From TrEMBL:
UniProt source species: viral metagenome
Record protein name field: Uncharacterized protein
Length: 179
């Protein structure tokens, strides 16, 4: 059976899925990228030199990358962990905060014919992630400004979901609050 998440196309990203106040983070310009890479540590023996005789998996690193454009102040304040006053967004130095406890669930929904999918089997859910504040704005004659946002994805520590990042496809009947 094939995955139902569609082969290509744009998406909607919901930050805080399943919570009151969930937020659609779009629109985007460029790829939305959810990626994971498992790291391995080589096992060596002197007689084989630098050629590994085995390897051990030592953990998977996952991330979500968004390129937000034409964003609202509310959206940017949320993903940059900033605050607003009137029409001003205040950017601050970020330090000393543990991220897992304030991380949220994200759901990625494909868009087809300008309609966001309402079928959970087509969605991707990330259980726990948090945006790493950062920005890179360009001023020139031809470059549209975007906020490239990187989310650190954590393996769940919740009972029954330990070590899991999320799902590709969700159970029928999944719903969300706030949107």
């Amino acid at each position: 059976m094939a995955l139902q998440i569609k082969s290509m196309g744009p998406c909607e990203v919901v930050w805080g899925y399943g919570e009151a106040g969930a937020m659609n983070l779009g629109p985007f310009l460029g790829a939305t990228l959810f990626k994971g890479e498992t790291h391995v540590q080589d096992i060596l023996e002197e007689r084989y030199g630098d050629a590994p005789v085995d390897a051990i998996m030592i953990g998977t690193i996952a991330s979500l990358e968004l390129r937000m454009t034409r964003s609202t102040l509310e959206q940017l304040a949320e993903v940059l962990n900033a605050f607003t006053s009137g029409d001003v967004l205040y950017l601050e130095n970020q330090l000393g905060c543990e991220m897992y406890g304030i991380s949220k669930s994200v759901v990625i929904k494909p868009i087809c014919d300008n309609k966001v999918s309402t079928d959970p089997v087509e969605w991707v859910q990330i259980y726990k992630c948090y945006p790493i504040p950062g920005w890179e704005l360009t001023w020139d004659k031809a470059t549209q400004r975007v906020f490239p946002i990187m989310f650190k994805v954590f393996p769940s520590q919740e009972s029954g979901f330990e070590g899991k990042f999320g799902t590709i496809g969700m159970e029928s009947g999944s719903t969300e609050y706030g949107l």
